[in-house]
Write a structure and sequence with these properties.
The chain has helices at about 45-55, 95-115, 190-205, 210-220, 235-245, 275-280, 300-305; strands at about 225-235, 250-260, 260-270, 295-300. The chain is an alpha+beta fold and about 300 residues long. Strand 2 (about 250-260) and strand 3 (about 260-270) form a beta hairpin. Helix 3 runs antiparallel to helix 4.
Length: about 300
């Protein structure tokens, strides 16, 4: 219940003896204040709760804000100011409407900043929207044709198979075949003819000892039955040299011999297959070997060897 209006003093104004007389206007009767409505406090409707949910959770709602339906005066919620508590008078409906519009405008601006693509309308821009472009399909990779013919199948895009790197085949090391060197062959033994030539060359140059040894080696290799003509025994190298100077010839040869304790040379003439051949050759000896009473004699080759 509201407090009763204060009592109005209606006693006559006091007169002052001195000074000008002040005249106060009569007090106007106070206007009776309307009593607040006694109906029960209003509750928010479902539409109010839905609007509040949209303002608090804007991302949970995909579509634009739905306009709130205005309800009846009894169901609409508006702030109630008690004159007794705060001393404020009840606000007019126009002020309340302006406040609501400001709240809705602030909520819409915040929602637009949070979700700029959710609003069905927007500021028209002068630039044309880019036309949707289709991404080019990846090129088809052609697989190598198989040897057998396969049944027709729908074309499918096969991922590019990486080309295998060529494998480098390292040849296995081949064991080197050892080179077989031929065995060193011993120096060939001089043939009898070669030995005979060496002995004759030594005789010509005056190397009588070497020549005698060479002739003896050659005679030992002669076949059995070989015969020669023995001329004389020379114990001086001058005798051999004089015979070479006077006669020469390829049939003359010398052999080493020890005569009465001295080293001498046996002088012979030719080699023949047998004694008869040597006898025939003795008839044609140079006259030098018959001087002084010398008598050449046919002798087997084995008898003149040292």
């Amino acid at each position: 219940m509201a407090a009763p209006p204060p009592a109005i003093d209606r006693s006559p104004a006091r007169s002052h003896p001195a000074g000008p007389a002040l005249v106060y206007p009569p007090n106007k009767p106070s206007r009776a204040r309307p009593e607040p409505s006694k109906h029960s406090p209003s509750r928010p409707s479902k539409d109010d709760l839905a609007a509040l949910d949209v303002l608090l959770n804007p991302k949970a709602h995909e579509g634009p804000l739905a306009p709130l339906e205005s309800g009846s005066r009894d169901e609409s919620w508006s702030p109630q100011f008690n004159e007794g508590q705060g001393g404020w008078r009840r606000l007019s409906p126009a002020v309340m409407g302006g406040v609501g519009l400001l709240v809705l405008a602030a909520a819409g601006l915040w929602y637009y900043r949070q979700n700029p693509g959710m609003l069905p309308f927007g500021r028209a821009s002068g630039r044309p929207l880019p036309s949707p472009t289709l991404r080019a399909a990846p090129p088809l990779t052609t697989l190598p044709a198989a040897a057998t013919t396969l049944a027709a199948t729908p074309v499918t895009t096969v991922a590019a198979v990486p080309t295998p790197r060529p494998t480098v085949t390292v040849p296995s090391p081949i064991a080197a075949t050892p080179v077989t060197r031929p065995l060193a062959t011993p120096p060939p033994t001089p043939a009898p003819a070669t030995m005979l030539d060496q002995a004759r060359n030594a005789l010509r140059r005056g190397d009588y000892a070497d020549a005698a040894r060479g002739f003896a080696t050659h005679l030992r290799r002669a076949p059995a039955g070989t015969a020669t003509v023995q001329l004389l025994v020379a114990c001086s190298s001058d005798t051999v040299q004089k015979a070479m100077t006077e006669v020469g010839g390829s049939e003359l040869f010398i052999l080493p011999v020890n005569y009465k304790g001295r080293d001498c040379f046996r002088m012979c003439w030719g080699l023949y297959p047998d004694a008869s051949g040597a006898a025939v050759a003795s008839r044609s000896l140079p006259e030098y070997f018959r001087r002084g009473g010398a008598t050449p004699k046919v002798t087997p080759a084995t008898d003149v060897l040292p």
